[in-house]
Amino acid sequence: SRREGMETWKSLCLCLVMVVFVIGRAEGQLLENFYGSTCPDVESVVKQTVSIKFGQTTTTVPATLRLFFHDCFVEGCDASVLIASPNGDAEKDSQDNLSLAGDGFDTVTKAKQAVETACPGVVSCADILAIAARDVIVLAGGPSFSVDLGRRDGLISKASRVAGNLPEPFVTLNQLNTMFAKNNLTQFDMIALSGAHTLGFSHCNRFANRLYSFSPSSTVDPSLDPNYAQQLKNTCPQNADPSAVADLDPVTPAIFDNVYYQNLVAGKGLLTSDEVLFSNAASQPTVTDFANNPGNFNGAFITAMRKLGRVGVKTGSQGEIRRDCTAFNS
Which residues does the annotation say bind heme b (predicted)? Predict the structure, then answer.
């Protein structure tokens, strides 16, 4: 009968809706409106805290962004990098993470305190870090985008598990691609995420070899623009103070823009891992495109950031919701 047909049709539609819902949630089960009923103001609370912190120091921007990247590439985006260990053997204590600026940690700690006041025990530190990473990009003049939420905080944070998971300043394009592919990110995503180097700085010892001991035939890396190389030598004399730094983007160091790629084209990539993106024929066309088209870069960066935010997430009953971002609950 017609009524039975309608019922069957309704059941089928409902099944399809459920299937779509399950498939949609299967990708780490993250949802933009995850806290819609449990902590609806979480994003505005985090944004307010991050804005205040940004007003105190612009280092907040690169520090928070780098913290998010370093977190996601080790154990997934689960705030494992925030754990403090009395024995100095947590993730943040590894050699690769010692250069993470305190302002990034402080940003998340302050945002977590504000969120706990509004909705105690509901929002993970991992989600707060993901929101804060988006907010600092916007504060620096970059594009806004929606952040998927529902991550839970991880229960493992070991310095011994970091090595080999984060890009070193001397890596090749193939090594970069392999490392990013392990996290479900393509070469295109990797080049877009490298654009975060439009902000922040690097310590002199990370690129001193390009100025003073590049090769037997050339003390200075010939791929560096000579005037830029001289500028770097002035900033970083040989055997410079270990705390000495140079801006990753010497032109607009505090603005989120596509100038990083224009610098690469002009021989002003600070790290070997930056310069290789332009000198390698496989990646050069993307760099040139991003240098000429800020809209293309912004679009690629947003896509890559959203993909990065899904790496190795814990959801459902995995992990926990930490009360204090620096310590496991138990």
Answer: 197
